User: Fold this.
Amino acid sequence: MDVQPSTSGSAAASPPVAARGIVVLTAAVAALGGLLFGYDTSVISGAMLFLRTDFHLTDVQLEFAVGIALAGALVGAALAGVCADRWGRRVTLLGTGIGFGIFAVLSGLAPGLITFVIARFFVGVCIGVASLVTPLYLAEMSPARIRGALVSLNQLAITIGIAVAYFVDYALAASQNWRWMFITAVFPAIVLILGMIFLPESPRWLARAGFRERALAGFHRLGRGAEAEAELEDVERVLQEEQEGFGILLQPGFRIAVFIGIGLAIFQQITGINTIIYYSPEILRMSGYPSAKAAILAAGIIGVVNILVTVVSIFLVDRLGRRFLLLLGTAGMAVALTLVGLAFHSQAAGKVVFYEVIGYIFFFGIGLGPVVWLLISEIYPTKIRGKAMSLATLTVWGANWVVAGTFLSLIHAAGPAGTFWIFAVTCVLAFVFCFAFVPETKGRSLEDIERNWRHFGEKPAR
Assistant:
């Protein structure tokens, strides 16, 4: 069910160079929230061994220490939409940056397990908030014609954070200095804080909050020019048509948007990506890599591939479209995971598994990685976009926690080959879901996308 391209002038007009610079600078600074998200979720993979030794942890305690950030992310995702709607996108990101900095340092300085767990829980809260508010802010600040690329900067930043964490872990592994693995996150947090002090608030949020003149000035600052007044009126028109709270999500038409957002959130996680991110050194060790340090280095290379393919996706998402990339990505992931399972089944060399995992990462980075975050920032109504994105992001972290928390048990029950074949089946299901339900949204304004759901409610798609 394709959405027809918008013909509005706001989508077609080219902003002046200075305004484009402001938009790109805003996107780059805000995407540091994504970098911190990626770094803080993956840095734990290299610190596990040293935490066990220094804190004398049992297996159960270690699992709890590793998973506590995901519990915090669930809480953060639940709170993020309310905070973003009440205090604004910019202020929420500013507070998140402060939290990242404080609790990164506390994680590294923790004298014992209890302090470490508390600090990591609040790091997780910040991760959950950033995972929602960063793409929301980017979507609302971006002109429709390049929104896909700018929102996808968030996913690029996440992949950079993951890769940086792997290489920091590798660099500090010899000295066993796990504390600096966590403290290092304070540096991008400081840049995020300083940047958000000076960046503008989302004009759409300002309009929602009743600050019309500031919203109009914001659209002018972002290069909307002569179209600024028309774009603001478009936002106000949509706001006047909407209800408060979650009730609108239950109306015909909007229900399908909620269903698609939650479905995408679930499939992004149950197709296995974070088992690779969190456990790639362990997976490579199982496949025959000779040492933990070699496995961490190989994981770092996988992280670099993730960055490169996300860059490719940024250039393609507004050209080939969201739907095409999702279909290509899920199909490729299914093939790659099938081959990983075959490699374990035939006891192939570790390098074979390594290359097949790279293939999986390539197709994830093309599709489900950046496109899911983009779509769940696009498809919801302005007035409740924060709350609706909170629901989708909460689903992401819930599915993440379940999959990551059961991966080793699944390996034990089904074996490595069976485990990766199960994930391959979920990729096939994701392909079917995207083919059947996900619309194309490239080139549309956020208000046009919302009107499409209203039309869908009046005339169900055939």
